[in-house]
Amino acid sequence: MKIPIFRTIEQNEYLMESIMKKIEDVFRTDAFVLGPVVEKFELKFAQIIGSKHAVGVGSGTDAFLLSLRLLDLQPENQVIIPVFGFVSIAMAVLRVGATPVFIDVDPLTGLMDLSKVEDAITENTRAIMPVHLYGKAMNMNSLMEIARKHNLAVIEDCTQATGAQFHGRKLGTYGITGCFSFSPNSNLGGIGDGGMVITEVDEYAVRLRKFRDHGHADEIYHDEIGYNSHLDAIQAAVLTLKLEDLEDSNAERIENARFYNERFGDLNAVLPEITDNISHVFNLYTIQVAQRDAMNIYLKEKKVGCGIYYPIPLHMQPCFDFLGYKEGDFPQAEQLSKRVISLPVFPGLKRQEIQYVTQSVRDFLSS
Known about the structure:
By secondary structure, the chain is an alpha/beta fold. It has 2 domains: 229 residues, Aspartate Aminotransferase, domain 2, CATH 3.40.640; 121 residues, Aspartate Aminotransferase, domain 1 (Alpha-Beta Complex). Helix content is 38%, strand content 13%. The chain has 13 helices and 11 strands. The strands form 3 sheets. A 7-stranded mixed beta sheet has the order 1-9-8-5-4-2-3, sandwiched between helices. Strands 6-7 form a two-stranded antiparallel ribbon. Helix 2 packs antiparallel against helix 9, helix 3 packs parallel to helix 9 and helix 4 packs parallel to helix 5. The longest helix has 19 residues. It starts with 8 loop residues before the first helix and ends with a helix.
């Protein structure tokens, strides 16, 4: 049996006829970039997430970049981010001319360690960017309390957590903005790239729409330095269809994760927590094992797709050497990077497939 870490065909195939009809409709409107199809998707996304505004952009990374531009950051300004995760968030901070300040993470979840946030705050700190890693919600009440105490902006990274919530409130609605990705392997995945920024602030929504369109104020004037970061109409048409099934597909991910947890409970592995409040929507099902590299090789030999997210903490990535961090600065992230491994959890995973994955993992860990 061959099982990939991600497989999107089931998520698209049953909608194929509707998808092709929507794409044909886009051709007939002759509006391929932004336009009425994108506006419809933005309105629907805002409604489902519970936000006043939603602004479609070219990618999740662009969502970070445009959100940071709202703060008008200066070279001396700092933005606090977790040191464990994907490089895009730190790169976005650097691209707007500010400095990312890394902090260590919780050893069980990989989420930003809230006990370390205040120690990282200086007079130059302007924002905190929490990452809802793997689809699991940060403790946003505690984080927002810290942010309010120090008058800091919060920009949420929801790229792996579309549809997740914390205490009944959807992620992305706590900060000044929430940033989402629609890459094909996301919980709400398109057939290409795309992203979204949500916000409650009218002024921010106006500026975000300018930023994504070369700083365009009207047909003649450009009053901001902007970007070419459009969500195209074909992506929006597909995403509008798939948005209807977001809750069900997230529920399937959670059920698959629950199946794993029930069968791995007696093994020597750290398992993700599963609750009944949709606080973890399992973009990735990630466990921790001592012999991760050997397990990675074994599973690939068994043709079980697995992934390591993330094998190198940000402070040890060569592109960030100039920031002056060194190995040993963030021990929890460094340990996690040697222990984490993600298993297939996508919607459409067949029961015999998940049983095969489960047995393969058990065989390795039991031996």
